[in-house]
Amino acid sequence: MTGKSCSISENLAQIRENIERAKPKSGQSVRIMAVTKTQDIATVNRAIAAGVDLLGENRVQEFLSKCAGYEQAEVHFIGGLQTNKVRQIAQYVSMVHSVDSVKLATEINSQAAKVGKVMDVLIQVNIANEGTKNGADVGALGELAEQVSEMANLRLRGLMAIPPFGDSVRYFPKMQSLYEDLRGKYEGIDTLSLGMSDDYEAAVAHGATIVRVGSALFGARSALFGARA
Questions:
Q1: Using CB atoms within 10 A of its CB, is residue 33 exposed (0-12), middle (13-18) or buried (19+)?
Q2: Among 177, 212, 98, residue whose Cα is nearest residue 144
Q3: Which tens digits make up the pLDDT trace of 110-124?
Q4: Where do the domains of the chain lie, and which CATH numbers do they carry?
Protein backbone atom coordinates (compact mmCIF):
# COMPACT_ATOMS: atom_id res chain seq x y z
CA MET A 1 0.00 0.00 0.00
CA THR A 2 1.30 3.45 -0.89
CA GLY A 3 1.31 6.17 1.71
CA LYS A 4 3.14 8.60 3.87
CA SER A 5 5.20 5.97 5.68
CA CYS A 6 6.92 4.91 2.44
CA SER A 7 9.42 6.85 0.40
CA ILE A 8 8.48 8.38 -2.93
CA SER A 9 10.54 5.77 -4.77
CA GLU A 10 8.80 2.94 -2.91
CA ASN A 11 5.41 4.48 -3.60
CA LEU A 12 6.25 4.89 -7.28
CA ALA A 13 7.33 1.26 -7.53
CA GLN A 14 4.06 0.15 -5.94
CA ILE A 15 1.99 2.32 -8.28
CA ARG A 16 3.79 0.84 -11.28
CA GLU A 17 3.16 -2.66 -10.00
CA ASN A 18 -0.53 -1.91 -9.45
CA ILE A 19 -0.86 -0.48 -12.94
CA GLU A 20 0.71 -3.51 -14.55
CA ARG A 21 -1.68 -5.76 -12.66
CA ALA A 22 -4.68 -3.63 -13.65
CA LYS A 23 -4.01 -3.50 -17.38
CA PRO A 24 -6.71 -5.39 -19.26
CA LYS A 25 -4.35 -6.17 -22.13
CA SER A 26 -0.61 -6.32 -22.68
CA GLY A 27 0.92 -3.44 -24.55
CA GLN A 28 -1.32 -0.77 -23.03
CA SER A 29 0.82 2.27 -22.32
CA VAL A 30 0.05 4.13 -19.08
CA ARG A 31 1.93 7.22 -17.91
CA ILE A 32 2.10 8.14 -14.24
CA MET A 33 1.55 11.84 -13.64
CA ALA A 34 2.75 13.32 -10.35
CA VAL A 35 0.20 15.92 -9.26
CA THR A 36 2.35 18.60 -7.68
CA LYS A 37 -0.28 20.79 -6.02
CA THR A 38 0.96 21.91 -2.55
CA GLN A 39 4.26 20.04 -2.97
CA ASP A 40 7.46 22.04 -2.61
CA ILE A 41 10.21 22.10 -5.22
CA ALA A 42 12.50 19.72 -3.33
CA THR A 43 9.75 17.12 -2.99
CA VAL A 44 8.86 17.33 -6.68
CA ASN A 45 12.51 16.97 -7.62
CA ARG A 46 12.77 13.86 -5.44
CA ALA A 47 9.92 12.38 -7.44
CA ILE A 48 11.71 13.24 -10.69
CA ALA A 49 14.90 11.66 -9.37
CA ALA A 50 12.91 8.53 -8.51
CA GLY A 51 11.78 8.23 -12.13
CA VAL A 52 8.71 10.44 -12.56
CA ASP A 53 8.86 12.16 -15.95
CA LEU A 54 5.44 13.82 -16.07
CA LEU A 55 4.12 16.53 -13.75
CA GLY A 56 0.54 17.79 -13.47
CA GLU A 57 0.00 21.41 -12.44
CA ASN A 58 -3.36 22.69 -11.14
CA ARG A 59 -2.74 26.35 -10.34
CA VAL A 60 -1.09 28.90 -12.57
CA GLN A 61 0.50 31.07 -9.89
CA GLU A 62 1.76 28.14 -7.85
CA PHE A 63 3.29 26.59 -10.97
CA LEU A 64 4.99 29.82 -12.02
CA SER A 65 6.46 30.22 -8.53
CA LYS A 66 8.06 26.77 -8.67
CA CYS A 67 8.77 25.80 -12.27
CA ALA A 68 12.20 27.42 -12.52
CA GLY A 69 13.42 25.13 -9.74
CA TYR A 70 12.17 21.87 -11.24
CA GLU A 71 14.53 19.31 -12.67
CA GLN A 72 13.85 18.09 -16.21
CA ALA A 73 10.33 16.72 -16.64
CA GLU A 74 7.37 17.17 -18.96
CA VAL A 75 4.62 19.39 -17.55
CA HIS A 76 0.89 19.28 -18.29
CA PHE A 77 -1.66 21.76 -16.99
CA ILE A 78 -4.61 19.89 -15.49
CA GLY A 79 -6.56 22.48 -13.50
CA GLY A 80 -9.32 24.90 -14.39
CA LEU A 81 -7.82 27.55 -16.65
CA GLN A 82 -9.05 31.10 -17.13
CA THR A 83 -8.51 32.59 -20.55
CA ASN A 84 -6.52 35.50 -19.12
CA LYS A 85 -4.02 33.05 -17.60
CA VAL A 86 -3.27 31.07 -20.76
CA ARG A 87 -0.49 33.36 -21.96
CA GLN A 88 1.38 32.82 -18.68
CA ILE A 89 1.75 29.07 -19.16
CA ALA A 90 1.71 28.57 -22.93
CA GLN A 91 5.47 28.40 -23.30
CA TYR A 92 6.00 26.07 -20.34
CA VAL A 93 3.49 23.23 -20.70
CA SER A 94 3.20 20.61 -23.41
CA MET A 95 -0.46 19.71 -22.88
CA VAL A 96 -3.60 21.25 -21.40
CA HIS A 97 -6.08 18.71 -20.00
CA SER A 98 -8.89 21.09 -19.11
CA VAL A 99 -10.28 22.47 -22.38
CA ASP A 100 -14.03 22.76 -21.83
CA SER A 101 -15.18 25.53 -24.17
CA VAL A 102 -14.55 27.01 -27.59
CA LYS A 103 -13.59 30.27 -25.88
CA LEU A 104 -10.77 28.63 -23.91
CA ALA A 105 -9.64 26.57 -26.90
CA THR A 106 -9.49 29.70 -29.05
CA GLU A 107 -7.29 31.49 -26.52
CA ILE A 108 -4.94 28.53 -26.16
CA ASN A 109 -4.71 28.36 -29.95
CA SER A 110 -3.86 32.07 -30.10
CA GLN A 111 -1.22 31.95 -27.36
CA ALA A 112 0.33 28.77 -28.78
CA ALA A 113 0.72 30.52 -32.12
CA LYS A 114 2.46 33.43 -30.43
CA VAL A 115 5.11 31.15 -28.91
CA GLY A 116 5.47 29.12 -32.10
CA LYS A 117 4.07 25.78 -31.00
CA VAL A 118 1.18 23.41 -31.53
CA MET A 119 -0.35 22.71 -28.14
CA ASP A 120 -1.62 19.24 -27.34
CA VAL A 121 -5.00 19.43 -25.62
CA LEU A 122 -7.59 17.19 -24.00
CA ILE A 123 -11.26 18.02 -23.69
CA GLN A 124 -12.41 17.85 -20.08
CA VAL A 125 -15.78 16.12 -19.81
CA ASN A 126 -18.17 16.81 -16.95
CA ILE A 127 -19.15 13.16 -17.01
CA ALA A 128 -21.54 13.31 -14.03
CA ASN A 129 -22.99 16.73 -14.94
CA GLU A 130 -21.88 18.22 -11.61
CA GLY A 131 -22.65 21.88 -11.15
CA THR A 132 -19.50 22.46 -9.09
CA LYS A 133 -17.07 21.09 -11.69
CA ASN A 134 -15.63 22.34 -14.94
CA GLY A 135 -15.96 20.32 -18.09
CA ALA A 136 -17.98 20.12 -21.26
CA ASP A 137 -21.38 18.48 -21.16
CA VAL A 138 -21.43 15.07 -22.80
CA GLY A 139 -24.00 16.33 -25.30
CA ALA A 140 -21.72 19.18 -26.37
CA LEU A 141 -18.60 17.02 -26.75
CA GLY A 142 -18.99 16.29 -30.45
CA GLU A 143 -19.32 19.91 -31.52
CA LEU A 144 -16.48 21.05 -29.26
CA ALA A 145 -14.17 18.31 -30.53
CA GLU A 146 -14.90 19.29 -34.11
CA GLN A 147 -14.07 22.93 -33.49
CA VAL A 148 -10.92 22.16 -31.51
CA SER A 149 -9.70 19.78 -34.21
CA GLU A 150 -9.89 22.59 -36.78
CA MET A 151 -7.67 25.03 -34.86
CA ALA A 152 -4.24 25.31 -36.45
CA ASN A 153 -2.18 25.54 -33.27
CA LEU A 154 -4.02 22.87 -31.28
CA ARG A 155 -3.67 19.12 -31.52
CA LEU A 156 -6.61 17.23 -30.05
CA ARG A 157 -5.25 14.18 -28.25
CA GLY A 158 -8.22 12.89 -26.25
CA LEU A 159 -10.31 13.33 -23.12
CA MET A 160 -10.00 13.99 -19.39
CA ALA A 161 -12.51 13.67 -16.57
CA ILE A 162 -12.77 13.98 -12.80
CA PRO A 163 -15.76 11.82 -11.80
CA PRO A 164 -17.42 12.21 -8.38
CA PHE A 165 -15.22 11.19 -5.47
CA GLY A 166 -16.29 7.87 -4.01
CA ASP A 167 -18.43 7.02 -7.03
CA SER A 168 -15.93 7.43 -9.83
CA VAL A 169 -15.78 3.84 -11.04
CA ARG A 170 -19.41 4.00 -12.11
CA TYR A 171 -18.48 6.60 -14.74
CA PHE A 172 -15.34 4.95 -16.12
CA PRO A 173 -17.13 2.76 -18.72
CA LYS A 174 -18.88 5.84 -20.14
CA MET A 175 -15.60 7.74 -20.38
CA GLN A 176 -14.00 4.76 -22.09
CA SER A 177 -16.86 4.66 -24.60
CA LEU A 178 -16.62 8.39 -25.32
CA TYR A 179 -12.87 8.05 -25.80
CA GLU A 180 -13.22 5.14 -28.20
CA ASP A 181 -15.86 7.05 -30.17
CA LEU A 182 -13.48 10.01 -30.46
CA ARG A 183 -10.67 7.73 -31.62
CA GLY A 184 -12.92 6.53 -34.41
CA LYS A 185 -13.53 10.06 -35.68
CA TYR A 186 -10.16 11.82 -35.45
CA GLU A 187 -6.57 10.91 -36.12
CA GLY A 188 -4.06 11.23 -33.30
CA ILE A 189 -6.46 10.47 -30.43
CA ASP A 190 -4.35 8.48 -27.96
CA THR A 191 -4.86 9.95 -24.49
CA LEU A 192 -7.46 9.25 -21.81
CA SER A 193 -6.55 11.11 -18.62
CA LEU A 194 -8.56 9.35 -15.95
CA GLY A 195 -8.05 8.14 -12.40
CA MET A 196 -6.46 9.54 -9.25
CA SER A 197 -4.81 8.09 -6.17
CA ASP A 198 -7.94 6.33 -4.92
CA ASP A 199 -9.12 4.84 -8.20
CA TYR A 200 -6.27 4.75 -10.73
CA GLU A 201 -6.24 0.95 -10.99
CA ALA A 202 -9.91 0.88 -12.03
CA ALA A 203 -9.22 3.71 -14.48
CA VAL A 204 -6.41 1.71 -16.07
CA ALA A 205 -8.76 -1.25 -16.40
CA HIS A 206 -11.05 1.06 -18.41
CA GLY A 207 -8.39 2.29 -20.80
CA ALA A 208 -6.74 5.22 -19.04
CA THR A 209 -3.40 6.19 -20.58
CA ILE A 210 -2.53 8.84 -17.97
CA VAL A 211 -3.28 8.47 -14.26
CA ARG A 212 -2.96 11.55 -12.04
CA VAL A 213 -1.58 10.61 -8.62
CA GLY A 214 -0.75 12.88 -5.71
CA SER A 215 -1.23 11.33 -2.27
CA ALA A 216 -0.45 7.82 -3.54
CA LEU A 217 2.98 9.11 -4.54
CA PHE A 218 3.78 11.86 -2.05
CA GLY A 219 1.70 10.79 0.96
CA ALA A 220 -1.51 12.26 2.33
CA ARG A 221 -1.95 15.99 2.11
CA SER A 222 -2.85 18.13 5.07
CA ALA A 223 -6.57 18.39 5.77
CA LEU A 224 -6.05 22.11 5.32
CA PHE A 225 -6.04 21.62 1.56
CA GLY A 226 -8.77 18.99 1.41
CA ALA A 227 -7.93 18.18 -2.20
CA ARG A 228 -8.24 14.90 -3.98
CA ALA A 229 -5.49 13.72 -6.34
A1: buried
A2: 98
A3: 999 999 999 999 999
A4: 8-18+29-217 (3.20.20.10)
